[in-house]
Amino acid sequence: MTVVGYTLMCEQAGPKELVRDVQMAEAAGFEFAVISDHYFPWVDAMGHSPYAWSVLGAAAQATSRIELMTYVTCPIKRYHPAVVAQKAATVGVLSDGRFTLGLGAGENLNEHVTGGGWPPVNVRHDMLAEAVEIIRQLWSGGYVNYQGRHFQVDSAKIWDLPDQPLELGIAVSGPQSARLAGRLADRLIAVEPSSQVVADFGAAGGTGKPRVGQLPVSFDRNRDTAIKRAHELFGWFGGGWKVNSELPGTAAFQAASQYVRDEDIAGSIPCGDSVEAVVRAVKNFADAGFTHVALCQIGGDAQADFIHWWEKELGPALSA
Fold this sequence. Notes:
Layout: E1 3-8, H1 15-28, E2 32-35, H2 52-62, E3 67-70, H3 81-94, E4 99-103, H4 108-111, H5 121-139, E5 144-147, E6 152-156, E7 167-171, H6 175-184, E8 187-189, H7 195-206, E9 211-219, H8 223-234, H9 241-244, H10 250-256, H11 262-268, E10 271-272, H12 275-288, E11 292-297, H13 303-319
Parallel strand pairs: 1-2, 1-11, 2-3, 3-4, 4-7, 7-8, 8-9, 9-10, 9-11
Antiparallel strand pairs: 5-6
Helix pairs in contact: 1-2, 1-13, 2-3, 3-5, 5-6, 6-7, 8-11, 12-13
């Protein structure tokens, strides 16, 4: 059975609202929650981007059961991997072992803020592999010294580690990243129901490990309203990760999605209040081999209605 989770999307809600939303999600029966880690929203209309790690600390204290995971953090530019290892360990302690560190090779949108240019994808993957190695070493306890092609660590040690070892997931979008995840990660993370990346992940060592997908949903009792909201806030979504990882700012995402039509959105994202449409979309992930799917309701002010719909209609249908 596919485990269904909830998405805390930092780009479309403020920090207090995000903590409130994860409390509601836990009370409504969601099994896990994932949180984006951005410096910018995707488009200006989203209007938010608080610091995900502060929200995670608050969420860990405001909940008691729901699993938490970053979806995803980039440890190669904006954050040094030694700092990511410390942050993740702290959230692991605060959450009593309910936290998984999800990592990815990042997007120019968020990582350009520290300067130094945006590396090509093969370099980013090399950097991510080094970052994972550093994080794993620091989680094992003791002092770490590391001299790699991209990162240096000088006599670092994490003093507060959770009682249970932390797990680490890696986001994938193609064969190269899927092989990297199969080799280095405890779970696969993806935003498309691709059976090929699942197969590549398994062939590289990921057989039997969790595979986590994410599905955007625009719930509203008025389908036209739902489509309009998804078009305004998620028109960029269909660009694919090879494009989305390279664009430098919100204006670029707005420009890249200017020719997306309402019917394009309605054909790719479940919009309205059709339980069957969401069940079919989740089944696509399950059929591709995904074990977990995090639903992402579009619109920061639409979360309470969506969670209520989940509790009363959508959740029971997916369980059945």
